[in-house]
Amino acid sequence: MALLEAYDLSHSFDYPLFDNIAFSLTCKDSISITGVSGSGKSTLLHICSTLLKPNRGYVKLFDEDIYSLSGGELIRIRREDIGIIFQSHYLFRGFSAYENIELSTLLTNSDLDEKLLEKLNITKVLEQNVGELSGGQQQRVSIARVLAKKPKIIFADEPTGNLDSKTANEVMDILFEYIDEVDGALMLVTHDEKLASRCRQTHAISH
Ligand code: ADP
Ligand code: MG
User: Count of domains in the chain?
Assistant: First the structure.
């Protein structure tokens, strides 16, 4: 079964962004989306992750046309089945790193995997307020928060943007291991060609 199918997606805001993008992701599959800044990478990720409706085309998640789902079903899919790592990670200020991660396990009734926190190298900062953390640490906390709820499909918008190349590669290892473990899939937006080439499929948005 395909976890995600995108059919002939086209979208424009002030100017046309992309036309007729089609791809599908099966279990353990991954696709990278590359393109210059402003080419529509984030827009495409938002469309595939249910946050935005395209001008043309449609998206199926887990074999269901997402535009024919009820509001309640859509919320359930967003909460439990997909995980979105945003380009600007929205951590809750005023809360500790641990509280931020714990929240997502509470929402989905899942157990927190301590190994994940070790792999992401954030065990030492768990008690700290997220406002005190460096950009790279915040990014790793936000990745932990998404993986902690054990989604099937990970949508990652430049998840390694704030990280040095060694840490970036380690974070990518974690994402690939994760989708292998849970039979999931990954859609990765990046401007790093090397990271992009680690995905099984690659798509470059061009103008
Ligand atoms: P990328 O992620 O490749 O840098 P984006 O998908 O974020 O590109 O944005 C592509 C273009 O669409 C940009 O010019 C951006 O300003 C515009 N854009 C993005 N979101 C909106 C929106 N909600 N309303 C109007 N224009 C938007
Ligand atoms: Mg973007």
Answer: 1
- Domain span at residue 51 reads 4-204
State both tokens at 191. 């401007």
Residue closest by Cα to atom 7 of ligand 1: 42
Question: pTM for this structure?
Answer: 0.94
Q: How far is the CA of 124 from the centre of ligand 2 (A)?
A: 30
| Domain harbouring 131, CATH code | 3.40.50.300
| Distance separating alpha carbons of residues 120 and 153, to the nearest angstrom | 19
Tokens of 5: 């199918």
Q: Is the CB of 57 under 6 A from ligand 1?
A: no
Asked whether 13 lines ligand 1 (CB < 6 A), one says yes
Q: Is the CB of 15 under 6 A from ligand 1?
A: no
Which residue is associated with the tokens 């060694």? Answer: 166
Ligand 1 atom with minimal separation from the 157 CA: 2
Give start and end residues of each alpha helix (H) in 125-191: 135-148, 165-181
What pLDDT score does 136 carry?
A: 87
CA 115, CA 57: separation in Å to the nearest integer? Answer: 40
Supply the Cα-derived Rg of the chain in whole angstroms: 17
What is the average per-residue pLDDT within 39-57? 96
17 lines ligand 1 (CB under 6 A): yes
